[in-house]
Amino acid sequence: MATRPVPAKKTPANKAPVKKAAAKKPSLEALEPKAVAAPVVTLRTVFEQLGEAHDLPKKQTLGLLADFVTAITTHLKTGARIRMNGLGILEVKTRAARMGRNPATGESSQIKASKKVTFRAAEELKEAV
Which band of pLDDT confidence, cut at 50, 70 and 90, is reported for residue 12? Predict the structure, then answer.
């Protein structure tokens, strides 16, 4: 005796067929621990902590911060190197003009000479970190 094939189930027109979730293999990214972004501490926060440690009013502390930034900027504009013991050296370096290339088009272009503020960490800071 021959058997007839079983007819496929029909789904109503307003309902889509339900798919079973396939078992996924965990990716390598899921197995590795996610990197947590380091918290950002501003110079203002540092000065406020110093002000609290030395019992200075907040207004005076913020005035010191503004004067500190102004003094650093003024010295760097004159070309001086600023050495902060235990922290490092701030200085202005001159970058020469050079030829560059636009990566999207491959077109060559001239890049102007510029000045750049650089920081070189002190040995004490390197060892501490």
Answer: low
